[in-house]
Design brief:
Number of strands: 12
CATH class of the largest domain: Mainly Beta
Helix content: under 10%
Radius of gyration: 20 Å
Number of helices: 2
CATH architecture of the largest domain: Beta Barrel
Strand content: over 45%
Largest sheet: 10 strands, antiparallel, barrel
CATH superfamily of the largest domain: Calycin beta-barrel core domain
């Protein structure tokens, strides 16, 4: 079998050593079947159903760890996209007293067995990308990534996000700054389902 740039079709993107299962080279039909199975929504996606629908949100931003948080109100709406493979949340609230709109795309990677999320908004030009795992039957999902702060100019600051599903009508989102070996809460959002 040819390798590298001379390869054609699927074998061009798959290293032959990666296709060995118990010493066997997988044929094209098996590769296609595995790819199709991995592309189907599964149990990890089922856990994300808890994000669907319309929500009221109370946002607490901790600008000073020793002081009271800044509190604002927001709304959110979660919908499936890409035939149930990803969930999109449209978030509308306030940032520093000004209205803003943000969006999260979250999914479950069946190959890596991890959740992955991307956040972006109309108040910044950076993407906030996180990845992690669920525990307790995916009632708690912990994601880690890095963030850039436009106010301080710091880049690639380690961050952690914890999603907690407290029932069908309530959930929380907590964000922690992991910089300098400290686990400092910077934000907490309490979501209550809008009826």
């Amino acid at each position: 079998m040819k390798q590298g740039n001379e390869s054609k079709g699927m074998s061009a993107t798959i290293n032959p050593s990666d296709r060995r299962a118990a010493g066997q080279v997988l044929d094209k039909e098996t590769l296609l079947k595995k790819a199709e199975e991995a592309g189907r929504p599964g149990p990890g996606h089922k856990a994300l159903e808890a994000l669907l629908g319309s929500w009221k949100a109370e946002v607490k931003c901790y600008m000073d760890p020793d002081g009271p948080p800044q509190v604002s109100q927001a709304t959110a709406k979660g919908n499936w996209i890409m035939n149930g493979r990803f969930l999109e949340e449209d978030f509308q609230g306030e940032m520093m007293g000004k209205p803003f709109r943000g969006r999260t795309i979250i999914g479950f990677d069946n190959v890596k067995q991890t959740f992955k999320s991307v956040w972006f908004s109309d108040a910044q030009t950076s993407l906030f990308v996180t990845e992690g795992r669920g525990e307790g039957g995916n009632k708690v999902i912990t994601l880690e990534g890095t963030s850039n702060c436009p106010a301080t100019g710091l880049t690639d600051e380690p961050m952690k996000v914890v999603l907690r599903f407290l029932g069908p009508d309530k959930r929380t989102f907590e964000m922690f700054d992991l910089g300098h070996g400290v686990n400092t809460k910077t934000m907490e959002i309490t979501y209550t389902r809008a009826h």
